[in-house]
Amino acid sequence: MERRGRKVLPIKLNEDELDYLGSLLRRRNIPNGEARRAKALMRMHEGCTNKAIAQELGVCAHTVGIWRNRFAKERLQGISELPRSGAPRTITDEQVQQVVTMTLEEKPEDATHWSTRSMAKRCGLSHDSVSRIWKAFGLAPHKTESFQLSTDPNFVDKVRDVTGLYLSPPENALVFCVDEKSQVQALERNQPILPMKPGQPERRSWDYWRHGTLNLFAALNVKTGEVLGKCYSRHRSSEFLAFLREVEKSLPERSDVDPYEVHLVMDNYVTHKAARVNAWLAKRPHWHIHFTPTYSSWLNQVERFFGIITDKQIRRASFNSLKSLREAIYTFIEKYNEDPKPFKWTADADLILGKVQKICSELR
């Protein structure tokens, strides 16, 4: 008996098309719709019917027929999502170009940057339309980032030295990142902190009493992630030297059997290079100092720890004395060291220097 029904277009893929679809399906971030259409084409090439493909992919046979006809006309271009039917565009390409050009090259007379409403008023569009255009082109006038180029004449050498120490430390060596968080304030809110409730965040008064400041010296073990921290009332070379002695006490006993080396990463602060500090280090030739470049404290991994303790323990708390602040800091460090996790440094010197070079080229 002769088969009746709509004639189905046969699909035969060439080698290039098969390779493209195979690589497309191996991607991890391919959209689901595009993946289904690619699988459907592979099954069409194998001679499967629309109904069988629809059952496998969880769509209706009519949809598979549309994909088959689209591919027969447009080949691989039919894989991508086509514009859907709907209301015609009300914004022309010239208007889109005007918004993008003005955003990049002009500023409003009464402000430092455009807002969606000021741009919409200037161009005769709705603020939602301006927002969509900015999003499509990756423009965010309300955001800004800061940068600071180092003026250190040995910037390149110091970057390579410190990053090389992180990525490929010497054998049988202990690497510590050392720095101090100075002027940590013991702030007490002048009203009790109101706890969080369902639908209501924690609340605190905007003003406070000051109960003095202290200085937190810290040494981060790059390999283990453990932190040694000590608080001092002042921030001088004598306090820094006392902290180095604390670091030395925490080290394992050094012998001829285990002649390990100690490497310290720290900045060029005058306290770190005082005569009494240099004299103490000179008596310990197995201690090696690696200075970060000027304005480059981000190269010191202990700065990341200072950010963590500030966010989790200091910023939102209320301290009625320096003693309570000191106890809170020591308690946090003790808990932190119960399950320390070393920071994973991934940026090599070439990557860092490449970014710096890019900023320098934009400043010319």
Q: The CATH topology of the largest domain, please?
A: Nucleotidyltransferase, domain 5
Radius of gyration: 32 Å
What is the molecular shape? extended
Mean pLDDT: 89
Count helical runs. Answer: 13
Oligomer: single chain
- CATH architecture of the largest domain, please? 2-Layer Sandwich
Order of helices and strands: HHHHHHHHEEEHEHEHHH
Give the uncertain stretches in residue-range form.
none
The beta-strand count equals: 5
Q: Strand order, main sheet: write it out.
A: 3-2-1-4-5
Number of domains: 3
Give the DSSP E fraction (strand runs of 2 or more residues).
Answer: 5-15%
Classified in CATH, the superfamily of the largest domain is Ribonuclease H-like superfamily/Ribonuclease H
> Strand count, sense and closure of the main sheet?
5 strands, mixed
Structural class: alpha/beta
In helices, the fraction of residues equals 40-55%
CATH class of the largest domain: Alpha Beta
Summarize the structure.
By secondary structure, the chain is an alpha/beta fold.
Describe, in plain words, how this protein is organized in 3D.
A hairpin with a 5-residue loop joins β2 and β3. The model has no long low-confidence stretch (mean pLDDT 89). A five-stranded mixed β-sheet has the order 3-2-1-4-5. It is α/β, with parallel strands linked by helices. The chain is built from 13 helices and five strands. The longest helix has 17 residues, at 322-338. It has three domains: 15-78, no CATH class; 93-136; 155-195 and 203-361, Nucleotidyltransferase, domain 5 (2-Layer Sandwich). This is IS630 family transposase. InterPro entries: Homeodomain-like_sf, MscS-like_channel, RNaseH-like_sf, RNaseH_sf, Tc1-like_DDE_dom, Transpos_IS630-like. Residues 175-326 form the Tc1-like transposase DDE domain. It comes from Thalassobacterium sedimentorum.
